[in-house]
Amino acid sequence: xxRPGYLADIGLEVHAELQTASKMFCACPVVDTTQAAPNxxxxxxxxxxxxTLPVVNARAVDFALRVALALGCEVAPSSRFARKNYFxxxxxxxxxxxxxxxxxAQHGVLPVYTSDGWVNIRIRRVHLEEDTAKLTHxxxxxxxxxxxxxxxxxxxxxxxxxxxxxxxTVEQVYAYTHSLRTLLQYLHVNTGDLEKGVIRFEANVSVHxxxxxxxxxxxxxxxxxxxxxxxxxxxxxxERQTARLESGKSVAQETLGWDEVAGVTIAQRSKEEAHDYRxxxxxxxxxLVIPASQISAVRESLPERPDQRLRRFIVEFGLAHSQxxxxxxxxxxxxxxxxxxxxxxxxxxxxxxxxxxxEFFGLMNAHHLTMAEVTLPPQHLAAVLDALxxxxxxxxxxxxxxxxxxxxxxxxxxxxxxxxxxxISDRDRLKKTVEDVLAAHPAEVSAYRDGKTxxxxxxxxxxxxxxxxxxxxxxxxxxxxxKL
Length: 484
Description:
Elements: E1 6-17, H1 58-70, E2 74-75, E3 78-79, E4 82-85, E5 95-98, E6 105-114, E7 117-130, E8 134-139, E9 145-150, E10 157-163, H2 170-186, E11 199-209, E12 219-224, H3 227-246, E13 254-259, E14 264-270, E15 280-281, E16 288-289, H4 292-301, H5 306-317, H6 321-328, H7 331-343, H8 349-366, H9 378-390, H10 395-408, H11 412-419, H12 427-440, H13 442-449, H14 455-466, H15 473-483
Parallel strand pairs: 12-13
Antiparallel strand pairs: 1-10, 1-11, 2-6, 3-16, 4-5, 4-15, 6-7, 7-10, 8-9, 11-12, 13-14
């Protein structure tokens, strides 16, 4: 949170694993590192054995191009890989193959929506690299600490997306990371499952006086593996830096970790410049040349971007921002919404949105299903809503029919007919039912006429019970008003 007199400047480095079948520079399969047995998807290349040669994964390049072009980046016709040298147990070679001086793409933008409206977050660069191994830190029975290394993750294709320091609040950071995660899912290059570590964040944070245009000293917070950790670490660091500046102290340029239990950042090492890593060209890989024809083909294959779809749902369908945001948050849901509209006799976007966000999501949650596991076709929800609009069934019956069709896969039209669930709109029949209910409860009628008007709802419930929920609610209310 920014204090008066100070401004924050925040840039993010997002590392997203590309969901290819094989690793970045070898044929080892990409496995779920939270499920697979350790060190089972390893070969001499990703284990860093001497004399092995890397080969670039063409599918990873294609996925990276999809992201870069979706972000509006300028793709370099030729980019180069480099060796990023530092010695740590999670790097079996002693270096990471990455792109540094000549990245795949640069100069993009991602519009995000916040409480202040739309904000453009500039993308500095998008580049390819390989992921590191996974370390598990444990203590033995004697209290001695040690680390276990799992090389299954080493060499998985990794895309790094670096922003300019265009974010100035934690809300903007949260909006950007959510929007980027949604975009990666739309492009089918990343599952977005933070619990499995397929997206990780690093934040560059600085604070400066509002009277100055010079950015403050930057610190880098590493290894933020969840939205909670990211927002917590940045919030703490903004407060810490502001407090130091207010007291006349300086902020040191350093690399920090985040202690989520204590809720504080922890200094890991001082850092002067990026060349601490001693980059130099990767001698075993030629330049990565991207033909113009490949760029054009990938660009033409891109789906509508989530932020563009959000704007369209608001403008074209007249939906509220909050409702449209819930629909576009998952591509399959947004596709389902539009498919339902195409199957309706009289398309009503607001009605469909209400039912998807309400009843449909409720059924998914109740049965612990993801959208990919839902078998209800869009035409079945359209049939339920058509029947509701036509007056063939009421809202209560529509919910019942949808719930059964959701699980059984049966046609809603067939269910309504087979179960005799059509709405009762025969005025004479409903009038007789209302008269019978009132005649059976003279004390309640007297109390209502003495001023206890809340009983109107009770009478309504009695009539609906007598008709097994099939009565036309508007007609029942009108007849009750007339009789009471």
